[in-house]
Design a protein that fits this description.
Oligomer: single chain
Order of helices and strands: EHEHEHEHEHEEEEHEHHEE
Strand order of the largest sheet: 2-1-3-4-5
Helix content: 40-55%
Distance between the termini: 47 Å
Structural class: alpha/beta
Strand content: 15-25%
Length: 227
């Protein structure tokens, strides 16, 4: 079955260009020119990936991304004419999986789509991805964080980050490594988004157990320390 791509952009020419190349490459596409309809299409069309423009009337791409993340972990690639570091950081924090600056080459878009779909798909659908420590269960299959027996609401990227760290106990990761391995693409510039996610995780996890902790390795990055 062909994989489905939802294209969200108020520029009809860009949408039709992307549709042409995507369908030529074997994807099934759906188009939305405004944010609210895009949110509805997540349930109706059930896309495997979303190409989401930022600058749109009414609901912009940031707002659409935030609303989609409340109910779905579908991969999202942001499309924008803006290339400032702040935009990239905000997109990462809201749960975007990649970021393409206009004007773009359609071959690059197709390559990014394939890379993101490859990362987010799994060949072992029945495999339960879970790590457990004292008073802590991190389940990536169901996207659940259980602390002291209580499920704690956690955004997808926060949970993916703590799962990645806890799956590699006592290993130190740089911020750039975490952006590449958790967010899934190489990132250059301000890496404060990792610090923001770690801070939020600490608010949920600090003081829970003396057998493990989320540690800062000064001048390097972070690790999930197990004693």
């Amino acid at each position: 079955m062909a994989q489905k791509i939802l294209v969200v952009d108020d520029d009809e020419n860009i949408c039709e260009l992307l549709r042409l190349y995507l369908e030529k490459d074997g994807y099934t596409t759906s188009i939305s020119h405004e944010g609210q309809r895009a949110i509805e299409l997540v349930d109706e069309f059930k896309p495997d990936l979303i190409l989401l423009d930022i600058m749109m009337p009414k609901l912009d791409g940031w707002q659409v991304c935030r609303e989609i993340r409340k109910k779905s972990n579908v991969p999202i690639i942001m499309l924008t004419a803006k290339g400032e570091t702040f935009d990239k950081v905000l997109g990462l924090e809201l749960g975007a999986d990649d970021y393409i600056v206009k004007p773009f080459d359609t071959k690059e878009v197709l390559a990014r789509i394939k890379a993101v779909l490859r990362r987010t798909s799994t060949n072992e659908e029945n495999e339960i991805k879970q790590v457990e420590y004292d008073k802590l269960i991190i389940n990536l299959t169901n996207y659940e964080l259980i602390v002291n027996g209580v499920q704690v609401d956690t955004p997808p990227k926060e949970l993916e980050l703590i799962y990645h760290l806890a799956s590699n106990p006592n290993r130190v990761f740089t911020r750039d490594q975490l952006l590449d391995e958790v967010w899934g693409f190489e990132y250059y510039g301000d890496s404060r988004t990792v610090d923001v996610h770690v801070k939020r995780l600490r608010e949920k996890l600090e003081g829970v157990s003396d057998k493990w902790s989320l540690k800062t390795v000064w001048g390097v990055g972070y690790k999930f320390e197990v004693k």
